[in-house]
Amino acid sequence: MTAQEQLTRLYEEWRCLSEGEAESIRAEAWPRLAGIQDHKADLQRQIIAASEPFETELACAQSAGRAVENPFRLIVQELILLEIRNAEILAEKRHAAERERAELDRSSQNLRLVQRSYGRPLDSAWQSYS
After folding, report:
1. Which of 48, 46, 47, 68 shows the shortest CA–CA distance to 57?
2. What residues contact residue 72 under an 8 Å CB cut-off, 6+ apart?
3. Tens digit of pLDDT for each residue in 45-104?
4. If both were cysteines, with which of 33, 68, 98, 126 could 24 make a disulfide (CB 3.0 to 4.6 Å apart)?
């Protein structure tokens, strides 16, 4: 397998993982998302390792006088857009969770106020034994 073929396979795997990442975020499947991100970290190391031989192949072709362009430029741009989309989805989920937490905090505070207004103070358990 050439370095270009290997990188093509690795980038396609990254694309699939990014799609799975988006689904996991939408479904709020956080453990699955963590697994995908671990897999992507490993995949990133593989891409870096496979990039060196590819860049050597590309440099050799260019030094031989052939006009060769990096075939991965568009693929990498697409993957970056997928990452940006996932970050936006995650930010939306985070903001929704923050709004929900703020609402729960307000509800909790209101309940404490109601309890103070209408509830009688509880006697200490020690007082009943004296």
Report:
1. 68
2. 7, 8, 11
3. 999 999 998 888 888 877 777 777 888 999 999 999 999 999 999 999 999 999 999 999
4. 33
